[in-house]
């Protein structure tokens, strides 16, 4: 294992410290318990809190800022954060209008966010939660009952964050988040595994001409391991289940998000995105907005995922609203 | 070799097509000859053109837009673009105030941009050039006489771009670019090699506990291959030669840029950046601005580079000026 790190036990904290130094204009760091939150006040606005295991950066910390998350709780690599972190972050961002938890559907995350919500309620902070499971690859998975939460989370955080920034109340922000979840689906593939620092060896190994279709962001098994295919064939293999599950049809509009797993260069991601657009155009589906890059990753894994969201005019308006975070910025 | 691509011969063109689809609000694509340029008019402003081999994305295409590059010419992977591309791009962005070529110091790039400048002059377009060589690792290299052009290029394109956007004339923009070059130095390291698609195998192989200090962005040899070290030791090993060469001293201000080579996760880059800041603070040097991420890459290479620029108040003002490109956005 070769990684740019000091002691394994320090990698998450030290990375958060470096992140907070680099983005002091946008975020504040608490080290005990560990969380990151917006540098500006949340007074009078609904707070948005997410979190999960580290190793998926820029998700979630990179999305803290105006028009997106209010705070994020990083767990150890691929390990849920704990309720103490979530409670402290909830208090830090509570601006009097309640807090929405955005939870990716993994058993540990779901359980710990539920506990934190109870603790917050006991302290008089109203909390609502949404649990996102947008991965169409498999029905249940290694650490998940039901579908895994993956790339759709990025879109959810952006769109719900825009609603919260605009002053929507907690019920409204939750409804916006649910509107994203109903209309977003994803699927990914891996060309290589990734090495969790504490494990010291790759979570799985693929042969030189092998890839895994339907991979999870922690390396959870997908649908099948098959021979490597061309970019266009890979994209088509991911889009088929997504489009089928969404029931997308001619004349509809989507946000198309081609995401890298961390170790795949942009050069390749744009080759894939080209086919995403061509495939959808061939079906009469219009790509109204595009997002391409490494936004929800799996350490240094090579591979990609595709996320499609059927988008209404109102959802596109929220997508276009200004966002000022370390990893996503536009319009302001 | 496992890459998300179709035919090797098509990877650069198809990637540019996907890029142009994803960023149609900002860029326009010409496929014959191949270049990308701003979607808006350059009338009345100095044009900024860069380019070089592909495989370093988001450099350069990702930096096209308001406040940065006017156009970029992508060559084949790790191969210089040709003068025909440069001439066509020059014409496309010529707004009557001349064009500045920003050239990384590699023999092929330098020669082809020189030829293009002659062709442009013959067509009545005034062209000036700057050749950047900011890599302190080695004096001459595989494809370079003198120092290689690396991470400093990103800072140069941003700062010169701000001057051009503000309406500076060609001589002034060139002077701003030269002011960056005098004050910026970089050095990188690799944990793995990278595979050029046309070669089909890694450009070099490092052992499980080995890294190469002073690597070039095409895998050119560095100073030495040594045993893997801690993140803090790696950062210190890069900073020493950079700081020495710049002659940085107590009380000075810098822009600190921690760059990933493509395959290294953000989790690790921020661990490194933490030590960059601590090391500089220990010397009494203030980090006035931060940039962390994969901005000048070497395909899927794991590793990083560090770039420091001694920055005046005027240079910081140009750094802070609005920039709206696919890969770098702020302030507007």
Please characterize this protein's 3D structure.
The first copy, chain A, has helices at residues 11-22, 83-93, 107-122, 152-165, 170-182, 231-246, 266-282, 313-320; strands spanning 27-31, 34-38, 47-54, 71-77, 99-104, 127-132, 184-190, 210-213, 224-227, 253-260, 286-293, 303-310, 323-324, 329-330. Chain A has 332 residues and is α/β, with parallel strands linked by helices. Chain A is globular. The N and C termini of chain A lie far apart (41 Å). The relative contact order of chain A is 0.14. The first copy, chain A, contains 8 helices and 14 strands. The first copy, chain A, has 2 domains: 10-182, Rossmann fold (3-Layer(aba) Sandwich), CATH 3.40.50.10440; 184-330, Dihydroxyacetone kinase, domain 2 (Hypothetical Protein Tm841, Chain: A,domain 3, 2-Layer Sandwich), CATH 3.30.1180. At the A-B interface, helix 1, helix 6, helix 7, strand 11 and strand 14 of A face helix 1, helix 6, helix 7, strand 11 and strand 14 of B. Chains A, B: Residues 7-330 form the DhaK domain. Chains A, B: This is PEP-dependent dihydroxyacetone kinase, dihydroxyacetone-binding subunit DhaK. Chains A, B: It comes from Deinococcus xinjiangensis. Chains A, B: One of its GO terms (molecular function) is kinase activity. Chains A, B: Pfam families: Dak1 (PF02733).
